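Hi R.,

Here's the input for the magnesium ion complex you asked about:
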Amino acid sequence: MAAGEQVSNIFDTILVLDFGSQYSHLITRRLREFNIYAEMLPCTQKISELGWTPKGVILSGGPYSVYAEDAPHVDHAIFDLNVPILGICYGMQELAWINGKQVGRGDKREYGPATLKVIDNSNPLFKGMNDSTVWMSHGDKLHGLPTGYKTIAVSDNSPYCGIVHETKAIYGIQFHPEVTHSTQGKTLLKNFAVELCHTKQNWTMENFIDTEINRIRNLVGPTAEVIGAVSGGVDSTVASKLMTEAIGDRFHAILVDNGVLRLNEAANVKKTLVEGLGINLDVVDASEEFLTKLKGVTDPEKKRKIIGNTFIHVFEREAEKIKPKDGKEIQFLLQGTLYPDVIESISFKGPSQTIKTHHNVGGLLENMKLKLIEPLRELFKDEVRHLGELLGIPHDLVWRHPFPGPGIAIRVLGEVTKEQVEIARKADNIYIEEIKKAGLYNQISQAFACLLPVKSVGVMGDQRTYDQVIALRAIETTDFMTADWFPFEHSFLKKVASRIVNEVDGVARVTYDITSKPPATVEWE
Ligand SMILES: Nc1ncnc2c1ncn2[C@@H]1O[C@H](COP(=O)(O)OP(=O)(O)OP(=O)(O)O)[C@@H](O)[C@H]1O
Ligand SMILES: O=c1[nH]c(=O)c2[nH+]cn([C@@H]3O[C@H](COP(=O)(O)O)[C@@H](O)[C@H]3O)c2[nH]1
Ligand SMILES: NC(=O)CC[C@H](N)C(=O)O
Ligand SMILES: [Mg+2]
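And here is the predicted structure with magnesium ion in place:
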């Protein structure tokens, strides 16, 4: 955790304790949509170690059974906070387990829609709601009312679909209000936070900017200096702009040209960030160093490792060259960590299999003994984009598709050489240019061209050609975990294919990738 005063001490905060449900992060998401700040922590969080006082606590769902020997349980100190509590699914079963243990296996699993029948319409939790569809996902159920509770809602299969404590604001619901299939679920979550917890709805990026700039200034102090790796992507640019607003030229941004950036990228980023945004940025051309190390390497994971390691090496070397004006060493490192990265690392989940290693290149500099500053660690991507717009970052940059750290090296399949990178770059540039011209850029989540290591026969100007193949990829997704390919008009693909074959030497054929994720991944390597 970055030092300095926490956001949860500044904004009214709902604490979400995660019991491992696949939907847990959506609870936080929904509340933020109502300008309510919410933070998710693992269910094992000790309340005495929290460092701030929540306005209310939500216990999420989870895959376990409360009665199982190894089931996770909440710190009972939440009840001493004297704030409203809402248990969702496993969370409700946990409340019931603590108050009489009447939880067991149901006769049938309930997965899918159910109709919620509200019994107590006057209860603030149901304000503005009526009987509606809710989403169920459980196999266990309450076999009786927990001691001291009463029923406020039912469904066909769940006689205790909504319960509340007789005298305290402690609620339990069997369904999942956080998923969109629960048609009035958002209202219920808002009611809990606003009507019951009296949380202020002041979580806006306008308010965040000032708070964050003050926080950075207090943390860094009047003279210390900060470095940061900046790629020209959304996250590092927004973080850099915020740093620049806070401490001006005491922030040093470094962009490493690794030889596998997009066409004219280093120059374009320099122009936008230095001239447009006043960021103190240096571009370090290390392209020869990277390309030399990549020589002869074809394995995708080896490519990632080489690029990651070389990046650290170059970055450290450049950082050492910076001599702060106060005569001391650089003390802080800026990172563009986002909330989903934080959630992934704190979430109460078992290990999942590694398909590919996505290293956050900036994230590996542990031995630099620098203190971390992560101004975006509380924000989701759409919040970062909104913040970027407010900070005056050009619209096109704020809405840029993500670009992987290993760049074009994982889009040139097989060996990476300067010539191969050049072909992939030119083809990619034409493709993106046409996508923008057709007004499709913002409908697509990510698009790029890949160069395949196969040769194919063609004919141009009565001459036989024998050249490589470009594969175009464009996907639509919300979370990049699953994705669908984008349904371009045929005329669009025809135009792009024709331009690429005509304008890029070394390409004989163009194909369009029509595989979803899964089974494919977004990148080809
Ligand atoms: N060529 C580079 N030079 C300097 N830093 C880099 C470079 N490539 C990546 N980084 C660092 O690695 C981090 C992670 O990259 P990542 O692609 O996840 O984020 P981003 O580039 O800031 O934003 P986006 O997700 O929109 O691409 C960046 O925030 C940046 O700090
Ligand atoms: O910084 C990165 N380093 C990597 O090594 C890397 N590999 C994939 N990606 C990006 O992650 C998202 C999902 O991609 P995949 O479906 O290919 O795993 C997509 O947005 C990919 O571009 C990477 N980003
Ligand atoms: N979604 C949930 O929280 C499920 C809780 C519990 N594992 C059950 O099956 O009932
Ligand atoms: Mg990037």
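One thing worth noting: The two ends are 32 Å apart (CA to CA).

Cheers,
M.
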